[in-house]
Amino acid sequence: MAELIALTEVRKVYNGERAHAALDGVSIGIAAGEVTAIMGPSGSGKSTLLNVIGGLDRPTKGTIVVDGVDLGRLSEAGLARFRRARVGIIFQFFNLLNNLTALDNVTIPAQLAGMKPGQARRRALDLLERLGIAPLRDQYPARMSGGERQRVAIARALINNPVLLLADEPTGALDSHSGDQVMAILGDLNRTGQTLVLVTHDERLARSSATRVVRLVDGAVADQRGDGSRSLVQLQ
Ligand code: ADP
Ligand code: MG
Q: Span 95-100, mean pLDDT?
């Protein structure tokens, strides 16, 4: 099976960090359509791994190929274009722009990618509708619940039709009901073919939903299991 994501011996050392590497020789292959759960203790390198896969940061050594693109060969502008066009990212604390409405938060990445304003707006409205938050289109994030904010963030992540959706503890700041709703949305997206890489602390979720589980300890893969089989996927 062709791999959508291939990491080979990836190492990441942050500036000024001498004692240990945040990622230390990580090699992973992920096929299109998989749900990969990244697990491990705090500080083990989970966010760093997600960030280098999404082109938000560069590794110190090693190669990362996503959707046929060797990220190490891209210029800064090329990497920004890659992120915008092919990757959607969801964060624990939503990272919405507080001075923009839900609709504008969702529309902006499409406009940055060069979509015509009318088309971007139609697509954003369609996504807000699909995520059950169309009535909130003119609201500002401060007036929304955590679960509503995360749904806006998911719509924003999907606006450019990414081949890859990354989520860094997407339910970490939500009550369990909103968290379940967000996971159900991610499950629905996966069922329609969306590849998903997700940092989570939830063992139950990883066991029931992921086609692949990568456990990090001190920046290295301590355990990796999964055959990529879609039959394992049972988000919600
Ligand atoms: P996790 O998401 O598993 O909690 P991180 O990837 O955030 O782990 O961090 C891995 C290691 O890299 C930790 O030792 C952390 O302190 C360090 N680290 C993360 N981000 C930075 C940064 N921007 N600058 C310096 N060190 C960092
Ligand atoms: Mg983290």
A: 97
